[in-house]
């Protein structure tokens, strides 16, 4: 056999093997049911400082991951749970502003999710608790005629890094996820 033929065979095998490579599984995106929610840019929190109505209000987590609060200025919220943010705010208020502050913080509105690809209306949509990939596609107007209706690709930030995987349509969506509906070939 000629070297050119052998080279062509090895290249073809390599191309076929490369097409069969599978990325991370849906398990890489699963978060335990009891895992605490971590704040990020786009979330809106409701803060109540007991006995201090002028300090209680709703605040947005900005693009830098901070919450701008009266008296104490910017407080880091990115990656914190609401309980951790409560302790941080209490500590800052205790440092020269209030004697014994008590703070309660809850998520008022979750950051949006994003959907693109073969859906009628790509874009950013508000997150609704209990949302699945199928419901997210429905919110975006449904599949286009070329949309792959068997699975979607979700990209999620986990521990500061982006993880993507193909998931079934009944897979749960989290705030901040990016969903891509791919084109089907047949």
CATH 2nd-level architecture of the largest domain: Roll
Distance between the termini: 37 Å
Q: Segments where pLDDT lies below 50 for 5+ residues? A: 15-22
The average pLDDT value, as a whole number, equals: 87
Provide the succession of SSEs.
HEEEEHEEEHEEE
CATH secondary-structure class of the largest domain:
Alpha Beta
Quaternary structure type: single chain
Query: How many beta-strand runs?
Result: 10
Q: Based on Cα principal axes, name the global outline.
A: elongated
Major sheet description: 5 strands, mixed
CATH topology of the largest domain: Outer membrane lipoprotein wza fold like
Please count the helical segments. Answer: 3
Fraction in beta strands: 25-35%
Number of domains: 2
Largest sheet, order of strands side by side?
Answer: 7-6-10-8-9
Query: CATH homologous superfamily name of the largest domain?
Result: Outer membrane lipoprotein wza domain like
Proportion in helices: 10-25%
- Radius of gyration from the alpha-carbon trace, in angstroms: 23 Å
What structural class results from the helix and strand content?
Answer: alpha+beta
